[in-house]
Amino acid sequence: MRDTASAIPQGELGKPEFEKQGFSAALLHFLAANPALIILAVLMVAGTVLSPVFLTTQNLLNILWTVSVLGIVALGQTILLITGNFDMSVAYVVGLAGITAVIAQLWGAGLVASILLGLLAGALVGLLNGVIIVLTKANAFLITLGTSILVYSLNLILTQSKTWYASVDSFLLLGRGKLFDTIHYSVIIFLVLGLLLQFILRQTIFGRSLYIIGSNQRAGELSGIRINRIKLATYVFCGTTAALAGLIMTARTGSTVANAGVGMDFDSLIAAVLGGTSLFGGRGGTLRTIVGVLILGVLNNLLVLLNVPYEAQQIAKGLVFLSVVWMDGLLQKR
Amino acid sequence: MWAKTRHFVLRQNVVILLLLLVVFFSLTIGSLFLNGQNIHNVARQISFDIPLALALTIVLIAGGIDLSVGSVLSMAAALTMGLQPYGSWFSVTVALLFGAGVGLVNGLLVTKGRIVPFIATLGTMTVVRGIMLTYTRQQPIAGSDAAFTFWGAGSLGPIPVPILIVLALALLVHLLLTYTSLGRNFYAIGGNNEAAFLAGIDVLRNKVLAFVLSGLLAAVSGVLIASRLNSSTVHIGLDSGLWAIAAAIIGGASLTGGKGSALGAVFGVITLGVLVNGMNLLGVHTYYQIGIRAIILITVVAIDALSAMNLRKKQMMQAYGARE
Question: Could you tell me the pTM of the whole model?
Fold first, then answer.
């Protein structure tokens, strides 16, 4: 036994080989584990070469501001993906939250009350998703597609297909306000939420149990994790983050329509997967999703700067999604 | 005797459901619902949904799912109209080949690429929709061959032509599923992938074929719709995929695979068609209809999952019983 142990190459202080070799080797190892960072770097370089306005503070802040709404949705989606679940209803929940808040304001609700009601609407849809999926163990994908359409019909009924405007002025700060006149609050919310969630995922028992549920539900069950309760909680959380994103989106334009946020279901999946979160549970993190969201944002920015038509962007998105999922599958097999 | 009857009734729940719907609508809106013109309309309407439900039934039987059918439908319709200046038969052939091609890609992604079916077809759904938007530049395309509208809009006596076409199609699928080795293989693979492989069935090839058939049938639906409207728009096929899944499951297919029939799919589509028609006649607002559709989809998927869970429990109980 002792022979085999000493046969493993060890550094001076008993550290693994790559750590002994110093900073550059450690960096290489880190990048190999996070290919998304390389993609992001390549895109940044390409942007700098292709367009003189790309690498300006203004443009970079703009990109961050543009992606932060989708980013917040993707953070919630990531938490669900880690447990091996999906939420395709987020797109219309984004709309529902804004509509609820705006209508509440028309009925005389103040800033805080309207925001809380908006968040509550998202949480309730999340709860509905969670309850159905926990009780029936049905395909999460199809169920949430179903609730997605249900929420859409609710949005249509509430708005009657009209545009509705926010009537509380301070509400608009949520979308347009800037800290120190430079960074939008929504960007700060997105980044802080991402960091906070990463901490919870990595450093708390609750966070660790999400990974266990995603990689081996039966094992989690046997080790005493309350699977159903946690699943419910993650669905409610995902609905709430989608609602938060919806409130920010509404506060930006000051108005909302029934299909605000359409397409964010698929985009949030792409962002999470691009960052390196698996669609099959057990692997990923919210820091990775921040990188994934940034990749999407930079890519979109580049495509706009290069005048690529919207229709072709759709094709590109689908192809990127398929290739990333395919590679994810290859990694899993290994 | 009672057990046998009960078993039969439970198995034919789609027929019961349909009868209940017909009775309900006959009692509430009577002559508006049960007249020749309305039945003619319903028959024409559902004929565009039947190929999709057949497509989903085949894929579900083989243990997969195909979310891309709606996109394929809209692109097939766009090709049928867009290439019509080169001849209707040519454009239809290209449209059908396109559908089969997407099916082939789906099949390869699922088998060779090892991507789970609903993720793979979600990807192709987006790509094909992007291709359709690029091809049409988001503009409607009008047809140029008036004779071609016969297939979707024409009637033979009181019977719409498209319903005859899709019923013939359903018969073909029925024969395929019940009397050919290909059809039996689909059931075997969907029922138990491992066992089918060990029994010597070429699982990969048969799965790919199931997806090809699905794409082809979706394209047929697109061609018929194009013929009916004599144009194609970007709005068609947006939620038809989900609706077809619901119809297939109502007709006896299951997300767990290995179950379903062509006849069931047809009944599933008729049931949903009658329901939509009844809601229209009752004057239910579109917004509420969308919600009702969603609730139906959720209910159908949930019931399917519950019955699969019950079956597993029963099998486990039997296994324990046998051991004791």
Answer: 0.86
